[in-house]
Amino acid sequence: MGVKERRKREEKARLATILVAAENIFSEHGYYQARMDDIAEAAELAKGTLYYYFKSKDEIFLHLLERESKRVHEEIQKRISEESSFLEALEEAMEFYLEYFEENHGFMKMFLPCMCGFIRFEDERTLRQSTKSFEYHGEYVREMLKRKMSREGVSFRLEDLLKFIKTLQIGIGLKLLEGNKAEAKAAARFFLDLMKKVMEAKP
Q: Which fold would CATH assign to domain 56-201?
């Protein structure tokens, strides 16, 4: 292995170490209390080395959001096909969110406040990028459900459904963080059973 290739591997490994450390710091201390010094110490790196990769904690936070948004988007695409029904799509989405939230407690602890609008970045550009990364995933889900609702003659408003799903996601995330897996699953099942009854009752 040449010097250039070895340097690339080392930088990639160092970046991964930084992101793990940052996620732990954000989830433990929250966005506002987290400091670059804390992240550098947790990653066992000099502060100058951390600034070589990221200029601010906002950039690190955004990088983590974009990484997870991409993961979520790719997994949703795999799980929900164009041929699946409206109810099947909802069930697959709920099952995925339950699994994802349960397996990614650290990220959820840092992300839920952002999802609820409790975090205000100092840099407006960072805020726009943060919103954009999740709008991309949200737009895919929106269009997918819109096509299925149109195809199956679902009469209620898509926007109302999406607002309800977001609220349910937040509630499920909080229950899982509290260790109440049974309650989280019960909430998802209640929603799916309710949607099934609505679909069965439509003319």
A: Tetracycline Repressor; domain 2 (1.10.357)
